[in-house]
Amino acid sequence: MFYRLLIGFFLSNLDVTIVSSALTSITDDLEGFEKRSWIITGYLATYTGSMAIWTKVSDIVGRKQTTIAALVILLAFSFGCGFAQTVDQLIIFRALQGIGGAGTYALTILCVYEIAPKTKLPIYSSLMSFCLVFASLIGPIVGGALAENSAWRWTFFVNAPLCVIAIVVIIVAMPKHFGLDQHTPSFRTRASYRSFANLDIMGSLLIMAGSFLIVAVLNETNLAFTWSSRDAIALLVLTGVSWIAFFAWEWYISGIPGKDPIFPKRWLFDRPWLGILISSFVIGAPYNVVLVYVPQQAQLLLDKSPLDSGIYLIGYSAVAAVAAAIVNIASARGRIPFIYTLLVGCTIHTVGVGLLSTIATSRGFHATDIGYLVIAGTGLGLTMGILVLSTPYIVEDRDLAIATGTVVQLRFLGGAIGLAIASNILNGRLAHRLQGVMSSHELHLFLENVKSIKSLSPHLQEVAKNVLASSFNTQLLVMIGFAAAQLPATLLLLKAGRQLAASRHSSMSSE
C-alpha cells in the first residue's frame, strides 16, 4: 500500500512546483504579472492553515475516508484553476486547491508512519524524501514544457488522471478502519458532534488568518500601498494579533481535558522538537524562492523558454532527491545522530544559497552556476531528509498525527513568507527604480505583462533588466539569513550524553 500512497504524496508536492516555470506565461496571459506571487502563496497559505486539522479529522472519521475527501477537493479545484479566466479567479481556486493538497500530503505521511515498523522507517522515509524532491525536479520541467506550448492550463488539468487513480487505489486497497484500533466505536459514534467539538477549529482559523495576513502585507506593500500607509499598518497589527491569539488559545485549550490543540503547550518545553519545527520553517523560504525565481530569472534576463528555465533546476532538485534518500538510509545504518547530519546539511545549504545570490548580477548561467545549484541542492536534501525521518523518533506516540501535519505545515508557512518577501523586494524595486524612467503607461503595461519589455527601446530594456537582476540578487541575499537560521535551530537538538538518532532497532537514541 505504501507505493500507492505515494501517488497522492507526489501530487500534493507537484502542485507547488509545476507552476514555478510557467508562472510568467500564466500571469502574462491573464495580465497580472504583479500578482504572480499570490498564485503560489495563496496555495501555501491554506495549505499551512488546514494541514493539522486534516490529521485530527482523520482520527475521528478514519484515514481512508479523509484521504479520499482530500483528493476529491484537490481534483475539483484543480479543474477550477485550469478554467480560470482572470488572475483573481486563479488565486481563489489555488487557495481552495491548497486545502485538498494539505490533506493529501499530511495524511500520506501519517499513513506511512503507521504502516512502517520503526526498524524500516528510514527506508520508507528515504523514499518519501526522494518522491518529495523528485516532484520539485519534474514539476518545473513539465510546467515549462506545457507553458512553452501555450498549454499552461494543463499544469492544473494534469492532476485529474492522477487524482482519479489515487482515489480508486485507496478505495480498493486501504482497509476501511485503517488507522483506527479494533475497539474504535462505530462511524456514527466517532463522527458525533462531541468528537468534532474537540477539534481545534479556532486554532486552525487563527493560524490561517495569521498566514494570509502576513502574506498579504508582504505581497501588496510597494504595489497597492506603502509601508507607512494605514493599510499596511492595519495588516501588520492584525497579523500580530492573530499570532498572539493563536499561541494564547493553544496554551488555554491545552489545559482543557478532551481538547485536541494543534500546537500542544508541552511542545514549547520540548527543546529537540522545537529545533525540528524551527528548522522546517526556515528551510521553506530559500527552498521555494529558488524553485520559483531561478526559472523567472532565466526567462526574464536570458530570454530562455519556460522549458529551458525548468531544466536549469535539475542540478538543484535531482541532487536534493538523491541526497535525501541516501541520508535517511545512512542515518539508520550508521546510527548517525540527527543533529550531526542537520549541521552538515544546513551549512552546505547556506553556502549554496550564498553562491546562488551571485548569479543574477552575472546576467548569465555558467557551469559554475550549475555547480552552485548542486551545492545548495545537496544541503537541502540532507536537511529535508532528516526532517521527514526524525518526527516519529522525537515526538510522543499520542502526538504523531498532529506532529506530522505541523512539521510540514511550518515548512510551507516558511515557503509562503519567503516568496512573499521575495515578491515584495521585486515589486518594490520595479515600482521605485523604473518610475520616472518609463512612462506611467509603459510601467503599468510592464507590471501586467512582463513580456512587454521587448517592445521597449534598447536602453529601457537594459535598465529594466538591470533592476530585475539586482532584485533577484537581493532576494537570495535575504534567503541566506533564513538558511543560516537553521544552524542555531539545529543546536536545540543537542543533548548531554546520547543524541537523538534513528537506528535499526526501536531505540531512539545513539551514542
From TrEMBL:
Transmembrane segment boundaries: 37-55, 67-85, 91-115, 127-146, 152-175, 196-218, 233-252, 273-293, 313-331, 338-360, 372-395, 407-426, 476-494
Membrane topology term: Multi-pass membrane protein
Pfam families: MFS_1
GO terms, molecular function: transmembrane transporter activity
Primary location recorded for the protein, binned into one broad class: membrane
GO cellular component, one term: plasma membrane
UniProt subcellular location: Membrane
SUPFAM superfamilies reported in the protein's UniProt record: MFS general substrate transporter
Domain Major facilitator superfamily (MFS) profile: 1-498
PANTHER family: MAJOR FACILITATOR SUPERFAMILY, MULTIDRUG TRANSPORTER, PUTATIVE (AFU_ORTHOLOGUE AFUA_6G03040)-RELATED
The protein's name: Major facilitator superfamily (MFS) profile domain-containing protein
Organism this protein belongs to: Penicillium egyptiacum
